[in-house]
UniProtKB/TrEMBL annotation:
Keyword DNA-binding applies: yes
Domain spans labelled HTH merR-type: 1-70
Name of the featured protein: MerR family transcriptional regulator
Pfam families referenced in this protein's UniProt entry, alphabetically: MerR_1 (PF13411)
InterPro entries on file: DNA-bd_dom_put_sf, MerR-type_HTH_dom, MerR_fam
A GO term, aspect molecular function: DNA-binding transcription factor activity
UniProt entry keywords in alphabetical sequence: DNA-binding
SUPFAM superfamilies (alphabetical): Putative DNA-binding domain (SSF46955)
Keyword DNA-binding in annotation: yes
SMART domains: HTH_MERR (SM00422)
């Protein structure tokens, strides 16, 4: 297919496709003449993945490139690729209070040990969780922080459900796309469900 058809099939505008080509996010097509190239379904899949990483995942171009480099390794490790993708997703960060940082780290490490989780010190998600705990401590809301093990239990069940969606997929690109979309939209779905549950629980507890 020509670039115009590639644009129609993928839903990505031609100028954006050219930009991705210049940035090395999309492999060059098969040359058929001067300033002309032929593309195939592999290019369509790659474009859809890039759009998912950028539009839904909110990744930077540099972050997308890291994910694609991991996918394009001769024998890519799916665990490694998913790790790179997760690492590139934006997280809600909070500047930790130095006075409470050690306390927060200790709480996170305690929960991680209980669940058999292996944490990396440079993981931005871990840093975000530490920051949130520091804010809770600064607000005097340690009651919520004390429920961290309960939240961890629920998160573990959700993670298993999330990854279960990937079982029927075989192509690495499709798995990464589904994981990113599931993480971002899954977060939104979980937030909405949580608010609905809050409304129902509040009605049961407090309405007379």
């Amino acid at each position: 297919m020509r670039m115009a058809e590639l644009s129609r099939e993928s839903g990505v505008p031609v100028p954006t496709i050219k930009y991705y080509l210049r940035e090395g996010l999309l492999p060059a097509g098969e040359r058929t003449g001067r300033n002309q190239a032929r593309y195939d379904e592999a290019h369509v899949r790659r474009l859809k993945l890039v759009r998912a990483l950028v539009d839904i995942g909110g990744m930077t171009i540099a972050g997308v490139r890291e994910v694609l480099d991991a996918i394009d390794e001769p024998e890519p490790s799916l665990h490694h690729v998913l790790g790179v993708a997760q690492h590139g997703l934006p997280v809600l960060a909070a500047d930790p209070d130095p006075a409470g940082r050690d306390w927060a780290i200790a709480r996170v490490e305690e929960v991680a040990a209980e669940h058999g989780w292996e944490l990396k010190e440079d993981d931005p998600v871990v840093a975000a969780l530490v920051g949130v705990l520091c804010v809770l401590r600064d607000l005097g809301n340690t009651v919520l922080a004390d429920r961290l093990p309960d939240y961890a239990d629920a998160a573990e069940r959700l993670a298993e459900a999330d990854l279960g969606i990937l079982d029927g997929l075989t192509a690495t690109e499709s798995i990464v796309e589904a994981a990113v979309v599931g993480t971002m939209l899954g977060d939104a779905m979980l937030a909405a469900l949580r608010r609905i549950a809050h409304q129902q629980a509040s009605a049961r507890r407090f309405e007379t």
